[in-house]
């Protein structure tokens, strides 16, 4: 159903893909947007090692929500900050592409857990977290991406 990677020598392992998803804070979520146009938006994410799913948060309405209600198939792309080898100018970057299905999280306890884990990727300020949950949670829609296919590769930009 999904294509094999064409540049298979650059493919990284499933463990390396998981490390990128776990450690990086953001990527681009691509959906089928209005009038058949692709719609890609930068998103913060939380990767849950226990269930292998990705979680997001955002507004309860808008282009993203309208798009996923029409078609739940999405692609999410994440890449790391890269590194340079000694004496080389080019950057080596690991990227991961996740194909899967996305759904709205309707359970409030689960939404609180997702928002808490997302927030803790950026700060350990518990007062900030508490204030955000009290003030913003009623306006937040959490999303759950269930992967169907994950690939990753290491690319040298030279």
Shape type: globular
Given helix and strand content, the structural type is alpha+beta
CA-CA gap between termini: 32 Å
- How much helical structure, as a percent, in the residues? 25-40%
Order of helices and strands: HEEEEHEEHHE
Q: How confident is the prediction overall: mean pLDDT?
A: 95
Side by side, the strands of the main sheet go 2-1-5-6-7-4-3
- Which strand-content bin applies to the residues? 35-45%
Q: Major β-sheet, in short?
A: 7 strands, antiparallel
Number of strands: 7
Rounded to an integer in angstroms, the radius of gyration calculated over CA atoms is: 17 Å
Would you kindly provide a written description of the structure presented here, covering whatever features stand out?
By secondary structure, the chain is α+β, with helices and mostly antiparallel strands. It has 4 helices and 7 strands; from the N terminus they run H-E-E-E-E-H-E-E-H-H-E. It has helices at residues 14-23, 63-70, 108-120, 126-136, and strands spanning 26-32, 38-44, 46-48, 53-59, 73-79, 92-104, 140-156. The protein has a 7-stranded antiparallel beta sheet, sandwiched between helices. A hairpin with a 4-residue loop joins strand 3 (46-48) and strand 4 (53-59).
């Amino acid at each position: 159903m999904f294509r094999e990677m064409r540049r298979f020598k650059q493919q990284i392992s499933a463990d390396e893909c998981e490390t990128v998803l776990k450690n990086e804070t953001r990527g681009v979520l691509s959906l089928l947007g209005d009038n058949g146009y692709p719609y890609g938006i930068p998103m913060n994410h939380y990767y849950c090692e226990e269930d292998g799913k990705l979680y997001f948060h955002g507004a309860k309405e808008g282009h993203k929500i309208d798009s996923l209600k029409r078609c739940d198939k999405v692609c999410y792309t994440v890449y790391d900050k890269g590194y340079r080898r000694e004496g080389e100018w080019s950057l080596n970057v690991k990227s991961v592409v996740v194909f899967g299905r996305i759904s709205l999280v309707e359970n409030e306890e689960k939404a609180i857990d997702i928002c808490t884990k997302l927030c803790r990727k950026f700060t350990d300020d518990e007062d900030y977290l508490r204030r955000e949950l009290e003030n913003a949670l009623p306006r937040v829609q959490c999303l759950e991406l269930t992967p169907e296919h994950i690939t990753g590769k290491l690319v040298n930009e030279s």
